[in-house]
Structures are given as structure tokens and as C-alpha cells.
Amino acid sequence: MTFTAGSDVTTGDLISAATWNLYMGSSGSIDELKTLADTMTAISAGSQPARTLDTVYQNTSGKTLLVTVSAEMANTDDVTVDTDSSTPPTTQVARIQFSGGGTLEQCVSFLVLDTHYYQVNDAAGTPPIVWTEWELH
At CA 69, angle to CA 57 and CA 76, rounded to 5? Predict the structure, then answer.
């Protein structure tokens, strides 16, 4: 499902239910979004895979994965995400950076297709991370 706003909707606008339904119709209803969310199965905390930065992994689950990595970013930390069908993956799909003082908790989420490879890269700095994966059914 994709959302393409019309010319009367600009970035930052609050989208009302009426506007949502105007563009999405019944196929884009909140009820459908809830149904889509119900198809996600979190891998239980006890069975979450141990993951580290700068390591290539392959999705062999038979399902699409939704991966979220949160990092405690310090000054000049830089994390990138690559995923595609090659090993190592070369298609960058996300990046988070921090160049302020102190620390800032940031997260990045991305999809990994079945049989595809994925890697979260420590481009600069070594932030502590929390890595969570969900299988989409």
C-alpha cells in the first residue's frame, strides 16, 4: 500500500480521516493497517538473534524481516544500512548520524526480503546498539 498525496496536501499537514479516505479509499483504512500490523510476529526476546555491527547476515526465515536497530550515538557516530541479494550487500537503504555534543538515541528500521543479505555498518564511532527483528507473514 502506498500513499501519494494530492497537490492540496503538503509536508507537515495533519491528515484527517476524511482526507486519508479520499486518497486511500477502503483499501487504506486504519482497520487495514491494524490487520497488517497483526501479521507481524516479534521474534521473542529469548530467541532474538545476537547481532553485531559490520557483519553480513542473510535472511533465511522464508519471510520478509522488519529490522530495527537503535544506537546511542555520540559525537561523529555514523551508522549505515545495506541490504540486497548480493554478499556483501551494496545497496544503502538507511543512514543515521550524530554530530552534536553529548549523546542521542536514534533508531533505524528497514525491510529485508527473504534470501537477501543485510548489514548494519559502523561507518564512524562505535555506538552501543539494540537490535530487534520481526517476521512479516
Answer: 105
- Cα torsion through 106, 57, 59, 81, rounded to 10: 30
Quick one: DSSP state of residue 132? E
Q: Global pTM?
A: 0.67
Q: What is the pLDDT of residues 81-91, one digit of tens each?
A: 999 999 999 99
Helix, strand, coil shares, percent, the chain, to 5: 20, 40, 40
CB-neighbour burial class of residue 81 (10 A; exposed 0-12, middle 13-18, buried 19+): buried
Distance CA 125, CA 94 (A): 17
Cis bond before residue 88 (omega within 30° of 0): yes
Is the separation of the CB atoms in 119 and 57 below 8 Å? yes
Per-residue pLDDT tens digits for 65-77: 999 998 888 888 8
